[in-house]
Amino acid sequence: MSGFRRSSGGTTIDRGRPLSFRWAGKSYQGFAGDTLASALLANSVSIVGRSFKYHRPRGLFGAGLEEANAIVQLEAGDVTVPNLKATQVELYDGLVAGPVNACPSLAFDAMSVNGLFKRFIPAAFYYKTFFWPHWRWFEPAIRHAAGLGVAPSLPDPDAYEHRYDHCDVLIVGSGMAGLAAAESAALATPDARVLLVEADAVTGGSLLSSDEPIEGATPLAWREAALARLARLPNVEIRTRTMAFGFYDHGLVGLSERVTDHLPPRERHGARQRLWKLRCGRAIFATGAFERPIAFAGNDLPGVMLASAAQTYLRRYAALPGRRVAVCTNNDSAYETALALHEAGIAIAAIVDSRAEPGPAAEQAKATGLRVIRGAAPIQAKGRRRVAALAIGALDSARATETIACDTVLTSDGWNPAVHLHSQSGGSLAYDDGLRAFLPAAAAQATASVGAGAGIFDPGAIIAHASAAGRGETCPPPPSSPVGPGRHFADGDLAAQTAWLDFQNDVTVADVQLAARENFRSVEHLKRYTTLGMASDQGKTSNVSGIHVLSSLLDKPAPAIGTTKFRPPFDPVTIGSFAGRSVGGDLMPLARGAAHEDQVGLGAQMEPYGGWLRPACYRRADESEAQAISREVLAVRRAVGLFEASPLGKIEVKGPDAAEFLQGIYVNAVRSLKVGHCRYGLMLNEHGIVHDDGVFARIADDHFLVGTTSGHAGAIADTFEEWLQCEWPQLRVMVENVTTHWAVMNLAGPKARTVLAAVGTDIDLSANAFPHMAYREGLVGGVPARIERVSFTGELSYEVAVPWRYGASLWTAMMQAGEAHGITSFGVEALMVMRIEKGFLHVGSDTDGTTYPQDVGFGPAMAKKAADFIGRRSTMRPDATRDDRRQLVGIEVTDGKGPLETGAHVLPADAVSPGGSEGWITSSAFSPTLERPVAMGLVARGASRLGQAVRVWDLGKWREARIVDPHFYDPQGEHRDG
Amino acid sequence: MLLIDCPYCGPRSEVEFRCGGESHIERPGPHGEVSDEAWADYLFYRTNPKAEHRERWLHAAGCRRWFNVARDTVSHRILAVYPMGSARPESAA
Predict the structure, then answer these.
(1) Domain shared by A581 and A550, yes or no
(2) Closest Cα to residue A550, out of A489, A482, A505, A497?
(3) Complex ipTM over 0.90
(4) Per-residue model confidence (pLDDT) at position A150
């Protein structure tokens, strides 16, 4: 026998809205308001999954987030979601789901032979058995056998979003305690915004399934009245399908809202889930409690279920787990379930209570005609694919005294308050001997725990205590009514081998015993050695039970064993929800130049460089990339080229102390620079390492324009601010990053002057009036412009900056004016080839995290400057002044072959093996201008070894080369003057 | 995630800020007169207390001002916030 649905009842289902769904390839019917789990139970589906390790058949175990067996794969294709709990999947029409770990089918699982070998696959079996190199042979099969759902192979089509929110009082959970706390908080502080969040689709928590009267009303009536009162309070907001999954510093709470998951995929619009980062003034945790299962042999057989789950299925969904039920308990709560099932016409075979004196609940059950067996506990559930009988015995004996025929066993070993959020917030826990559970103790932030989450189960006490917490008052919790004892498993007891603690990770009492025998006695070691509590439910129902087993085995009180740390998330949250909109191209949006569209129109091959999308080169139809680069280089060398240099960093530095400030920033002298001139400068970090370089221009006595490398402007501007604010606050200087205010077009080549003149300018361009390294302002093409005559190509070169909005038109004007002179647009790659030909340093390519300025030829510049600057003292440290440091040099091949590989090692001329590298190639290219390869490298003592032969090694290949001066092209600088 | 009371903008989330490490570290100089030991101490050695810690923060996605924070490294409680350049106050706890 197995589950079925009653013909009436069910507090959260709508019988007027039947729904069809498919499970494991078969069609079924359910109702709106069902979960996938309740619908499966109502349809007599008894086996809902196969266990993780041994592939044992498993049935529904819980009704909420504690469910450990019914792990499902929802839908197929790109919208598929693995590893959901059937108890949290709201049923919708057309839903398709299946189990995650059954092969080929639930009914017959080829892997279940693992179960026969159970005694050979104990905890830590893999650690002890598989070592490299053998592990690699076993790994694929084991990964296939063990595991859960299948990750989607297609991109996630769903959207997720992030929202921020604030509230004065956050209430987590909408059961009796949550509703009472929300109401009293809202009334006590009418100006405060009170937010109540509920993970379920429906508010009410256990009110939806409980029978115990509250303040003279039924739980449902009490809930209706409380919700009606809350609805009249303007400062209360309730959000359902919203789970508080993490509590962080300073009142930050992570909320995961399931926005459209309850709808059929075709009806979903907008964000599927929403991640809220909520900051609350104070928080009240009304998170309830999870019922503990009882460990006994065969307690994972389908038909063994938590007592509270059966009551939830009955009351909320009118679904029943079976027709003849044995109830095993150590506390009163399961009696309510037994009576509810009895009233529903289910045969209660017996109530097995571990307590010798069970108290009034047992008397009431007896008065109703139910059989109560005292001082007893379950020993073994019998049956092959479903419970058929339960063997029980005296609590202190392993011998069965009676076998009870039944199709369902309900168990309750007491309750574990959901202390997760309290613990995550930094609060401490205290073990309660009566409840045999950890309760929230001292709070670390402005938080309070109420209701079952605080270990309070009496309705009157819950309301009084939660209402006080809502008002911000503290009220001592009432004394707990103790639960009864549990069975002690002797070390080596065969029953322990199938007495499950962690159903999802297949951990048994015997595994805990094994860990203890091998001295993994710390609860943190126990967890990692056995994987107890490491499944996706994070041990909601198993951790405390595991601690009880260890406590009884070691004869050590449970508080001395302690509990593992609670970490977010409380329940798994989709990764996409954390990513939000930062996916694909939106992960790191790339900036575009002012003339981007024109460049694309010219066939630019756009690639990302330092956060910008820039032309790498402009390939013509019949060209290879190398051919395009060569053509562009030769066009610049022989005629004129146009390059958009807008990404070059531009920082304005202004104020009476601007020169003084930059004097402290640059390796080079700054004060001596005359107005209207530019200078190349090198910046270090405080460790003396080359950090950035660029040209700075003096616009006025108190005004500089600082150039940085592309993509580094923001970081350099931030560095300037840090030094100004933290180290040199006395300097009167303003700093502003204006990189994207100005579009920069670089005209380079012997005909650059002619083309710029043709565009039209009021600036005297003659070589004498506007020499190399000069700065001028004026009109270009009728637009105000700033021009620097600087050259990274080695040719006559103007960098013309205009306000960004004129960038594209300046590009067009230059291309048109240059047409008669053979103007060629060129990309970053051609520029890089030209700077290597010139031997110009490229920070980040020719320098690394160990490169001092003296390593790249700036020793003399530093020696000429007396003043201190960032990093100067570090350049004097013993390691920086070693005489065998690697120095930047040119490398010329002498074997007549192609360019060297960047990163190839430089070795002495007589080297025959690659050991003892003296440095490496940092930049390398084929020079179309010189028609031979050119390269630079950092080589030990390189500067004093010009002319020496070396060998270059890369991935087993040897090349012959020579150290040379890196200025391969135009060393006298004649071309840059046009 | 900390809630930091920027002296210029008021309480804002940590994501808007950048931590610049320990505060009140004096830069030795002039460079020609600083020993290797003193310079290494300035560059590398920090107090790293398990208690109240003075550190400097930048409101990077806000006013872009640096300021000092006294923070308990165990509880993450922020005990005081005070402007850059003001003298180091006695224990704020």
Answers:
(1) no
(2) A489
(3) yes
(4) 87
